[in-house]
Design a protein that fits this description.
Distance between the termini: 75 Å
Number of helices: 5
Strand content: 35-45%
Order of helices and strands: HEEEEEEHHHEEEEEEEEEEEEEEEEH
Largest sheet: 6 strands, mixed
Helix content: 10-25%
Radius of gyration: 42 Å
Number of strands: 22
Length: 374
């Protein structure tokens, strides 16, 4: 009896252990494997979207940053050089005009009459002058030069000639034209207005020949050189930088801001407008014939910089030795042990979506906006 009781106690002690063995992935108890995992190798098979840019060989332009304001080389407030009634206004604010294009016309009929009147007065004066000179030539046989000058002054010939020229000039200016190619900023008259000499007509702005007056910190001024490259960006179109050239570095430094001024010449395309504030990158040095990568492509692993290169649908990491950088591009130097630069012009390095990749990860190149969508 005691023997049977001992065996029963042993069986009761073992019952809780039945069915408590450790489960493995093959048991299926932990759920199926994800679609992004290879069931045999455990490696990802999902091709991740990335953005790439090619390695290039060229000049690395080192720059300093500055801010400034866009200005135009010419803003003209046109004024009337004749008086009369406006009979035509052919432009409106915002219209583009070319040099010599008619903008406003004043009724020319009164001006034509003024020319005729001045011409008649001159003819009368010349008649009196000739009569005096002819009479002297009959009585004296030869007219002295002093006598001619006296007769000319007596009949105000010089003054009458000036009056005729003024009348002709006023008639010629009955049509106000654009002095240069530009855009109409404002029109100050309307058809039917009676205007006088000196009245405001319209404002024309040159939108092509522009400049930026950049404020440059005094310690950066010695680095600039006339003829260097400048890149101008405005808040209205931040993705469309405009290239220009450093035209001058002005001599004075502001005693309060400790900044000098550099003049950058740019050619406007209608998007830059005078008065806009601009961010400017000014060339300070140019390192020729360098292997360059986008700075955005650099990733650090184990304290060393590397880039991912797209090859045959996979991302291969390549350790690089970096040199100078301007913030946008970085030069790649020869490897310290082999003396060879591990990248070549045209290699596609990844600039977006690469920071979480592993070596030989499957990828597919896609436009920038598609990566953002993922």
């Amino acid at each position: 009896m005691r023997h049977i009781l001992s065996r029963s106690l042993v069986l009761i002690a073992l019952l809780p252990l039945v069915g408590c063995g450790k489960k493995t992935p093959t048991d299926g108890a932990d759920g199926p494997l994800t679609a992004a995992t290879d069931s045999s190798k455990g490696a990802s098979t999902l091709a991740l979207p990335v953005v790439g840019e090619p390695v290039r060989k060229g000049d690395l332009i080192l720059t300093v940053n500055a801010t400034g304001q866009v200005r135009t080389d010419a803003t003209s407030m046109l004024k009337s050089e004749a008086q009369g009634t406006v009979i035509a206004v052919t432009v409106r604010p915002g219209d583009r005009v070319t040099a010599g294009q008619a903008l406003v016309t004043i009724d020319p009929k009164p001006l034509d009459l003024d020319v005729q009147s001045a011409q008649a007065a001159l003819d009368a004066g010349l008649f009196g002058y000739n009569s005096d000179v002819y009479a002297d030539s009959v009585t004296e046989g030869k007219v002295r030069e002093a006598r001619r000058s006296f007769a000319r002054a007596s009949h105000n010939i010089d003054g009458l000639e000036v009056s005729l020229q003024k009348a002709k000039m006023a008639r010629d200016h009955a049509t106000i034209t654009a002095p240069f190619d530009g855009t109409i900023e404002s029109v100050a008259v309307a058809v039917g207005d009676r205007i006088s000499v000196g009245a405001d007509i319209a404002t024309v702005v040159d939108m092509k020949h522009l400049r930026v007056e950049a404020q440059v910190l005094e310690h950066d001024l010695p680095l600039l050189r006339v003829g260097g490259e400048a890149v101008v960006t405005v808040a209205a179109i931040p993705d469309r930088p405009v290239r220009g050239v450093i035209a001058a570095v002005l001599p004075l430094v502001d005693s309060v801001t400790r900044a000098g001024r550099a003049i950058i010449r740019i050619t406007g395309d209608g998007t830059l407008r005078p008065g806009m504030y601009a961010d400017v990158r000014l060339e300070t040095n140019r390192l020729a014939d360098r292997i360059l990568i986008p700075t955005q492509a650099l990733v650090e692993r184990d304290g060393r910089p590397l880039v991912f290169v797209a090859k045959d649908g996979r991302a291969e990491w390549v350790y690089v030795l970096t040199g100078r950088s301007n913030g946008r591009e970085t030069e790649v130097l020869p490897d310290s042990s082999t003396g060879v630069i591990p990248l070549h012009p045209g290699d596609m390095v990844l600039t977006e979506g690469q920071r979480t990749l592993t070596h030989q990860a499957p990828i597919h190149l896609t436009p920038r906006r598609d990566v953002a969508a993922h």
